[in-house]
Amino acid sequence: MEKVQVKEAKGKLGILTIGVGAVATTFMAGTLLTRKGQGVPVGSITQLATMRLGKREENRFPKIKDAVPLADLNDVVFGGWDIFEENAYEAAVHADVLTKDDLNKVKDELEAIKPMKAVFDQDFVKRLHGTWVKSAPTKWELAEQVKQDIQDFKTKNNCDRIVVIWCGSTEVFTPLGEVHKTLAAFEKGLKENHKDLAPSNVYAYAVVSMGIPYINGAPNLTVDIPAMWELAAKTQTPICGKDFKTGQTMLKTVLSPMFKTRMLGLNGWFSTNILGNRDGEVLDDPGSFKTKEESKLSVIDNILQPELYPELYGNVYHKVRINYYPPRNDDKEGWDNIDLFGWLGYKMQMKVDFLCKDSILAAPLCLDLVLFSDLAKRAGLSGIQDWLSFYFKSPMHEPSKIAEHDLFIQYVKLKNTLRKMIGEETVDFID
Q1: How many Å apart are CA 211 and CA 162, to the nearest integer?
Q2: What's the mean pLDDT in 97-104?
Q3: Mapping DSSP to helix (H, G, I), strand (E, B) and coil, where does residue 146 land?
Q4: C-alpha to C-alpha distance for 283 and 170, rounded to whole angstroms
Q5: pLDDT in tens, 24-73
Q6: Myo-inositol-1-phosphate synthase GAPDH-like domain spans which residues (predicted)?
Q7: pLDDT digits (tens, 9 = 90+) for 297-316
Q8: Rounded to an integer, what distance in angstroms lies between the CA atom of residue 116 and that of residue 119?
Q9: In angstroms, rounded to a whole number, what is the distance separating the alpha carbons of residues 169 and 281?
Q10: Which of 25, 51, 355, 422 is deepest in the core (most CB within 10 A)?
């Protein structure tokens, strides 16, 4: 198989996070601890997973980071934007995800990460009140400020490459409109302060227009619009998203394939979540919850295909709830009640109670996504990177295709894409 020409990962890789809160600081601190040998990056495929190469009898199972030319963690530099001025160490202490003992091991490095002023619009995040924010007459000029921030960061830190990842809050639900459908309409909208262009759109435009990979970790429209697909094609830029797949939805992408492969029926699936971090506070607003709900609800139907199996999945009642509960902080509880039926329609139930840590699950996804997106850019890939669907609740995909939600199929696709990059045969598990 012809090997993809992947440019060497020379020099420093700048990682800019939009949002320097719980997820971002957990990601930053964990990466810094890992490269110091003071932590294990549990959950990171790029750092821990192996990948079979060749036939089974060849017994070649190198770690992905040894087989694929990824950026080295020692070459990573962090920065970001936030609506609050506190540095990454102060933000991490406030988030209360990692212990003070762990944070103090990388305190100097975290204190040096001081967020740039953020693009912020109260209409898109009702429950937060930003104090460290940019101002400009138009959204176009805000995008120009973001571009300047990136250039200044790159110069100051002597970075060879940049990747940007959204680690901010969920914005209010915004339906796809005319302003999102063409690049010309989008750019006109920025100049005219169109009401449907969110802060995430401003960031995405600035980043993608510079040819920098953009990762959308929230269910916001952001880069999942024709205007951004057009811009990504024009600048030859990888984009991916949307909404990190961490807790409850990850379980759905595991359990739903199990029900389908065993032809077990489903009557209903009720999901509720309680969490108390800033994400929980934001999602307490109905507008932001609507955006998240759309992302969470799409999974089951996509996997079970009720149009093909009406007798099993034609009448599923699926309900999702998210409840803000401050005492939990970053500890999230996802509870599911699943009503099944089996042979001759006899009823059964399954209960799942996942007590997880939201940012602990999201941090390794951030690390993998920035390294893989940088790899994609060096490999000359552009546009929607659907091979990274493994990481997202509502994976972006080409308009002519159907999204793939099955976690295990997504995983095979991810590894087969990596195999292609290094000139290895893809694996179909027949032999």
Answers
A1: 9
A2: 97
A3: helix
A4: 7
A5: 999 999 999 999 999 999 999 999 999 999 988 889 999 999 999 999 99
A6: 247-359
A7: 678 988 999 999 999 999 99
A8: 10
A9: 10
A10: 25
For residues 41, 46, 48, 52, the Cα torsion angle rounded to the nearest 10 degrees is: 170
Please tell me the distance from the alpha carbon of residue 30 to that of residue 142, in angstroms, as a whole number: 31
Average pLDDT over residues 204-233: 96
State residue 279's pLDDT score.
66
Question: What average pLDDT does the segment 266-274 reach?
Answer: 94
Q: How confident is the model at residue 398 (pLDDT cuts 50, 70, 90)?
A: confident
Q: What percent of the chain has pLDDT above 70?
A: 94
Cβ of 318: how many Cβ atoms within 10 Å? Answer: 16
DSSP state letters, 357-405 = EHHHHHHHHHHHHHHHHHHHHHTT--EE-GGGGGGBSS----TTS----
Distance CA 312, CA 333 (A): 29
- Give me the pLDDT at residue 115, please: 98
For residue 319, list its beta bridge partners.
Answer: 270
CATH class of 13-244+360-422: alpha beta
Residue 369 tokens, joined: 């996504």
d(Cα 131, Cα 255) in Å, to the nearest integer?
A: 43
Quick one: 110 exposed, middle or buried, by C-beta within 10 A (0-12, 13-18, 19+)? buried
Q: Which run of H or of E encompasses 207?
A: helix 199-209
Residue ranges per structural domain of the chain: 13-244+360-422, 248-356
Residue 290 one-letter amino acid: K
Give the separation between CA 315 and CA 313, rounded to whole angstroms. 6
Helices (H), 210-347: 226-235, 248-261, 278-283, 286-304, 310-313
Homologous superfamily (CATH) of 248-356 is: Dihydrodipicolinate Reductase; domain 2 (3.30.360.10)
User: Would you say residue 402 has pLDDT above 90?
Assistant: no
CA atoms 131, 275, 284, 199: torsion sign: positive
Residue 206 has pLDDT above 60, yes or no: yes
